[in-house]
Fold this sequence. Notes:
Blueprint lengths: L1 H11 L11 H14 L8 H13 L9 H25 L7 E5 L2 E5 L5 E7 L4 E6 L3 E8 L2 E4 L4 E2 H13 L13
Antiparallel strand pairs: 1-2, 2-3, 3-4, 4-5, 5-6, 6-7
Helix pairs in contact: 1-3, 2-3
EC number: 1.16.3.1
Subcellular location: Mitochondrion
Keywords: Heme biosynthesis, Ion transport, Iron, Iron storage, Iron transport, Mitochondrion, Oxidoreductase, Transit peptide, Transport
Amino acid sequence: MIARSVRVLRLFSPKLHRFRVQNSRHLIVCLHKYFANDSLLRISPPNAAIKVCVRTLNSNSSDFELDLVTYCSVSDETLESLSEAFEEILEKQSKIDDFDVSLSSGVLTVNLGKYGTYVINKQTPNKQIWLSSPRSGPKRYDYVNGRWVYKRDKVSLHVLLSREMSDLFDTNIDFTCCSYGK
C-alpha cells in the first residue's frame, strides 16, 4: 500500500522522490514536510492538504472508511447518473410504454409498469446504497474500491442492473459507464 501511495504522490509531484517513505505514519510526516515547505504549494494549513491526499490514497483500499461528506457526494452522483441512464435507456425501448423514473431526496424509483418497480436509495446511517429489485430482491451495496458492491456475492450494483435490464429488453445494456460503475 505504501509503495503504491508513493507512486501516486510522485505523479502529483516529482519532487516527492527526496523522501524515503517507510510506513503510513512516515508517509504522513513526509506529506506534512512537503506541503509545508514547498514554495509553489504553500498550503495553509498543510494538514488539510495531507488529509485530502491520504483520503485519496486510501480510497483504493478495500477497508477505506467513507466519511459522511464523501459518502453523500459519491452516492448522490451515483443516483443522478443512474437516473439519467435509466431515462435514456427507457426512452429508446419500445417494450415499455408507461415507465416512470424519479429521483427525489436520495431515492431513485424506476417504475417499469407490468415488469415491476426498482427502488434504489441512499442509506446514510450505514453509508450504503440499497436496491429493491423485482427480479433479484433486496440488496445492500457498500462502497468498495470505487464501486458499489454487494458483499455477499461481490457483484456491483451497476453490473447487476446491466444484467437485469439486458435480460428484460433482450439487448445489451451497460450501466457500468455510469458514475462509480467501473
